[in-house]
What we know:
By secondary structure, this protein is mainly beta. It has helices at residues 2-29, 137-143, and strands at 31-32, 46-51, 54-59, 71-76, 82-87, 98-101, 107-115, 120-130, 145-146, 160-165, 168-173, 185-190, 196-201, 212-214, 222-229, 234-245.
Amino acid sequence: MLSFRLSGGRALATSLVAAAALSSATLAQGSKSPTFHGAKVNAGTVTCKHEGKSLVLMLSDDFVVPDTPAPHWQVVDSRGNAYLLELLKVKGDKIHKTITVPSYVHDVAKVQIWCAWAETLLGETDLVCNHAAGNTAEAGMQFGHKSSMFAGTKADKGFVTHTIENGKSVLVLSDDFVVPDTPAPMWQLVDSSGNVYLLNRLKIKGDKINKTLVIPPYVKDVAKVQIWCAFAEVLLGEASFEQPVL
Length: 246
C-alpha cells in the first residue's frame, strides 16, 4: 500500500512537471477559443495571451465584423459578471482587433460581441484565462482547467472550471449549467484514488445556487466533479478533468 502511494506520488509529480511545461508554453503561445457563434457573429476565434503583466485578447484573421451599429468587445468572468469594453469599429474600415483586458477583470470565461445600440448579444465564444503569469504549475491552474461536459440522468449541461484564487483552489460552474430539479442536490468530488467527498449544498435560499466551491485542503486532488442527490442517495451527473487538478 505504501509503495503504491509513493508510485502514485511520483506519477503525480511527473504530471505536475509536464503541466508546468505545458502551462509555460500555453501562456507564451496563447490560449485559443472555439469559433464564435451567434445571430450576427459566427466566424473567427479569440486568442488570449500574456504580454508582460498585461492580458491581451486578439481576434483571428477570419473574424467578420457584424454589420450593426456600435458593436463592442464584452467579456464575462467566471462568476458571470459582464464587462462592456472597447468599441469594435473605429474610424474608417479599421477595427480594434486587439484589446488589453483591464486589471479589474479578474478572469475571462467568455468573449462576446455586444451591440450597444440595440443592447443585444451578437455572438460569443468560451475562453478560460486570467491575469496570472509565470512558469509554475500553480500559474497553469490560475490560467484555468476546464472539465468535460456534465453527463448524467439529471445533470447533463454545462462544465466546471478550476482556478486558483488568492491561493485557494476553486471550482466554478459554467453559466449554462442547469441545477437539477431534485431534493438536496450537493457538490461531490472524487479524487484520483477514488475517494469521494460530499461537500456543499448546490441550492441555497431562494433561487440562488452555490456556483463556486472552494476545495477543502484535505482533498488531495480532483478527478471528477459530481452532483449528488443527498435525499435519494443517487448520482445525478458528473464531469471529469483530463488530468486531476489540485
